[in-house]
Amino acid sequence: MSLSVRPQRRVLVAKINRSQSFAGVNSPADRPFRNLSPFTPTVSRKTGSRVSRMFSMSHKSPPPKVPQPNRLDEVYEALKKGLTAYLEVHQLELEKLSTQIRESKRNSRLGFLYDLDKQVKSIERFLRRLEFHASKIDELYEAYCIQRRLRDGAHNMVKAYSTGSPGSREARESLAEASKGYKEYTENMCLLENELESQLGEFHIRMKGLAGFARLCAGDQYEIFMKYGRQRWKLRGRIEVNSKQVWDSEEMVFLPLVTEFLSIKVTELKSLANHVVVGNVSCETKDLFAALPQVVAVDINDLGTLKLSLEVTWNPFDKDDQPSAASTVNKASTVNKRFSTYNQSPPDTPSLREQAFYVSVHQAGLLRRHGQW
């Protein structure tokens, strides 16, 4: 599976292909992308790491004037697949942690079991929240489909009354009523489309670097400009010795949109007034609704000799829920590290605090046995 690229006015055919490092996603029909390691250097930071955010308005964009039902159907199907994958990933993680608790309940330390139990409860809360979020999206889409059917019916009535002879008063009144209903249903569809768009979460995009066989040389400077609706991201980079790249910005958060596409423009900065546009492509974003981070490669020019490597992570919730969304699967590595740390010593060897607890319990049992309790 690959991300399709929409050509702009200048017909530029380009594609976005997931890197082979993201295993298990590419279908046999996709064109395999070469491994980026030989000519994609690591991106070194010029300034402190900081995630920038670009939002068109406070939280929501203004509702559209004309609904796009066909496009909304495509985005809804991709969104449902992403939410299903998210649920499956966290359900597998929950089962894995539950198995660890059952296997280590007798011989592990109390602190480790407490951490595992906290992790399980956190994932359970996140799963319930994710299921509620999916049901809310289903309700919005169902209401949208109802308004669409009503709008189609009103459109057919308007068409029927318009083609007939509008001589009678009843026919004119019916035409006015049908036109009023068509306008009302259209406005309702636009509002529901805007509300559904606000439930799409966030795209966290991380700059990985440019890749080009003999295209990149030491001393070259590039400017990358990304446009996604009213959201903008401009960053500049320089190719240094040993194929290292330095960029003034590395991360950006975009709010997903229903009808807009991600536009990427790459310009080579040769001198003060001499800039060469390497490529300008428009990319499809509905395939970015995935549970795990994806490494994608964008063909910037027609020949594909210059590629832009990005890492995209989708968060199904908005910016206020980012900590809760990131505190589920990502904590699994921490738990595994703690598990390996605790297993370095015999698991049935109690700590000093546990020994003191066992001694106090034993003394209380002796006092109770002799009637002195």
Automatic annotation (TrEMBL):
Pfam families: PL48. Residues 16-362 form the FAM65 N-terminal domain. Belongs to the RIPOR family. This is RIPR1 regulator. Residues 33-70 are annotated as: Disordered. GO terms for cellular component: cytoplasm. Transmembrane segments: none annotated. Residues 37-50 have a biased composition (Polar residues).
